[in-house]
Amino acid sequence: AQSVTQLDSHVSVSEGTPVLLRCNYSSSYSPSLFWYVQHPNKGLQLLLKYTSAATLVKGINGFEAEFKKSETSFHLTKPSAHMSDAAEYFCVVPLSNTGKLIFGQGTTLQVKP
Amino acid sequence: DAGVTQSPTHLIKTRGQQVTLRCSPKSGHDTVSWYQQALGQGPQFIFQYYEEEERQRGNFPDRFSGHQYPNYSSELNVNALLLGDSALYLCASSRTEFYGYTFGSGTRLTVV
Predict the structure, then answer these.
(1) pLDDT of chain B along its 112 residues, tens only?
(2) Does A59 touch chain B (CB under 8 A)?
(3) Cα-Cα-Cα-Cα dihedral of B55, B58, B64, B67, to 10°?
(4) pLDDT digits (tens, 9 = 90+) for A5-15
(5) Among A13, A27, A34, A51, which is least packed by CB within 10 angstroms?
(6) A108 touches chain B (CB under 8 A)
(7) In Å, how far are A21, A77, B21, B36, B79 from B62, measured between CA atoms?
(8) Nearest CB to A100: which of B45, B103, B106?
(9) A98 contacts in B (CB within 8 Å)?
């Protein structure tokens, strides 16, 4: 069965410092993987997606993620955090041939001035 | 170009009542999925509609039902509301293929 595990429920960084949000996946084959962001009282916005092309994926707002099959990981990074990055982040895997998205539990990113 | 529109944005209902939530998909999208997001949790898949039929269903009781209209808009109905149904209900639309979902801002349902 496919699943994702977000290793941190809460991450706090200072503005201008790097961001690392960790996600491990479980799948019997190389899956597609997404990162979504949810700002307070807003819907979900797609940050980036991996679909078995390049393993380093660049997304919006300076975020990127690297698919590492050997580590079954898909961690989200950003070199320099902005105050506007404070939000909830979800690692997501689509269940093959169903259209169903499996969400991780989410990581709350706090950015301190 | 409007994205996914959900209505209402907030709703308060009494336990035992019935509720209908509405979703208009993004222009050009024909598939609508519904998710329930409890406080502090990731969204959980309820069901997906395509060509006016329920194509996939998650682990939700029959109290949760839906409908899709010829213009691709969709409704989520919940009967016999329980306190545990209090959540943010998200609608997502796509163009048949699975990787182009656009989410709405959701409907916040509170059951008292």
Answers:
(1) 569 999 999 999 999 999 999 999 999 999 999 999 999 899 999 999 999 999 889 999 999 999 999 999 999 999 999 999 999 999 999 886 556 789 999 999 999 9
(2) no
(3) -20
(4) 999 999 999 99
(5) A51
(6) no
(7) 37, 41, 16, 15, 9
(8) B45
(9) 56, 98
